[in-house]
Design a protein that fits this description.
By secondary structure, this protein is mainly α. The protein contains 13 helices and 3 strands; from the N terminus they run αααααααβββαααααα.
């Protein structure tokens, strides 16, 4: 497939999502990634309805995740509409989500101790203590960090929402150490690449986390979003309220936060044992 033609198609598609549909930059980036993969798979810049149906069938046969199929289907539908093709794809039934393989406090401690410099330590501590999303961390600027209040401002997060999240005093001390070694101006991105000083990308962050997980010899798959799940489960284990966790993670609905409760049956068991009536 011609890379120049593909780039031109993606540029027009990106403009359509931003100007005509008014989608957020984060959503646009996700749809563009999904469409690029789909077009390369179909090997056509103007796929027919049947080509699209066969591609979606292929995703189902390969047992791709619910979110991958839904997001890719939406991306392809928007593209088809742009090309004058009317197609409405079905959506698989949303499965009951279970959060698994989160990082324990001991495992996160091992990751922190596996860091080799102030930059790596600051990245891991910020992911672990704040629970921010991958892209949110990459977009944080120095002026968004309030060292005195132990807080971060997340500007333009998911669904273009701003919020304030808490970090621990320990995390703040790590950030102060980082600023001492890697001076940052107020408008500078908090983390940049070492060689060219470009904004840290989400792929850069995923790679850093993978390297640290191997160095710490955790023996499990570790990725940036796992720290978000781990913060929620570790807060729950320590007795934090669902409302506090919802606000920290920036969930729009409490139902999203409830996923962590239903994923932890042992917590419900211990809570029952604590509160059960004393009949005997």
């Amino acid at each position: 497939m011609d890379k120049t033609k593909l780039a031109n198609q993606m540029k027009k598609y990106e403009e359509h999502l931003i100007v005509d549909l008014g989608l957020s930059p984060m959503t646009v980036a996700g749809y563009c990634r999904s469409l690029s993969i789909a077009l390369r798979r179909m090997r056509k810049f103007c796929p027919r309805a049947e080509d699209i149906r066969q591609f979606v069938l292929w995703m189902h046969e390969r047992k791709f995740s619910y979110s991958h199929i839904v997001n890719t289907s939406l991306a392809v539908e928007y593209y088809a509409r742009l090309k004058g093709i009317t197609i409405k794809l079905g959506r698989p039934r949303k499965p009951r989500q279970i959060i698994q393989n989160t990082l324990s406090e001991a495992e996160i401690s091992r990751l922190i101790h596996a860091t080799k410099n102030a930059r790596e330590k600051a990245v891991i501590c910020l992911l672990a203590y704040s629970g921010v999303r991958n892209s949110e961390l990459c977009n944080i600027r120095r002026k968004d960090v309030d060292l005195g209040a132990n807080q971060l401002k997340i500007i333009g997060g998911k669904n273009r929402k701003d919020r304030v999240v808490n970090i621990s005093a320990e995390c703040t001390r790590v950030l102060i150490e980082y600023f001492g070694s890697f001076g940052r101006q107020p408008d500078d991105f908090l983390f940049v690449t070492l060689e060219k000083q470009n904004q840290l990308s989400t792929s850069d962050l995923r790679k850093m986390v993978r390297v640290l997980a191997r160095r710490a010899k955790l023996g499990k798959r570790v990725f940036p979003h796992l720290f978000r799940h781990s913060l929620a489960t570790n807060l729950l284990n320590r007795g934090a309220s669902l409302i506090m966790i919802k606000d920290q993670l920036g969930h729009a609905f409490i139902d999203t936060t409830m996923i962590y409760v239903t994923s932890m049956p042992f917590r419900a068991r211990s809570e029952y044992d604590f509160y059960k009536p004393a009949y005997m």
